[in-house]
Design brief:
Length: 172
């Protein structure tokens, strides 16, 4: 199995990456946040939150080279965007929590306009509910949260993504 960098024979891995970015539009801020996480050159395919059995989850911050630009990259994504002058004054906060059992595991993602403490509370609540639905011997929980304050102008975005392996060609 690939190790996420295209090397056969290594263990499979999901890399947790994160970043924040600003831009003149919400999409430009999102693109900048993806660039900070190292995944701006891929077409992201979002999946639900199950970690396959025998796959490790490693928090790495910025993704390594995962293949040619334009390829498809499978991810679990937490994302939040805020705008200059947002009347709430709350930061954009994105968080991802995960737990891995001896078999499969689960991710839980949260994004919105609230502080880091509230994000962590929601992650814990959601992950607890996910564990209660499954009869798995889950282990310790890990969490990564990114927060960005409303910018002076334009938009700001925070992302945290679980990146499943390496990219794959999107066309034939």
């Amino acid at each position: 199995m690939a190790d996420g960098t295209g090397s056969p024979g290594s263990d499979a891995v999901i890399r947790v990456v994160w970043g924040t970015g600003t831009g003149p539009t919400a999409l430009a801020a999102y693109d900048a946040a993806l660039a900070a996480a190292g995944v701006e050159n891929y077409n992201l395919t979002t999946v639900s939150s199950i970690v396959p059995a025998d796959v490790s989850v490693d928090a790495v911050g910025t993704a390594p080279d995962l293949g040619p630009p334009g390829n498809r990259l499978t991810v679990v994504e937490a994302r939040a965007t805020t705008e200059a002058g947002d009347p709430s004054g709350e930061p954009a906060t994105a968080g991802l929590a995960w737990t891995v059992a001896p078999g499969p595991g689960i991710f839980y993602e949260v994004g919105g306009s609230f502080d880091e403490h509230e994000c962590r509370r929601r992650l814990d609540e959601g992950l607890t509910a996910g564990r209660e639905l499954r009869d798995w011997d889950v282990r310790a929980t890990e969490t990564r949260v990114q927060t960005v304050e409303p910018p002076a102008a334009g938009f700001a975005t925070a992302v945290v993504l679980g990146v499943y392996g390496a990219s794959e060609p999107i066309v034939g």
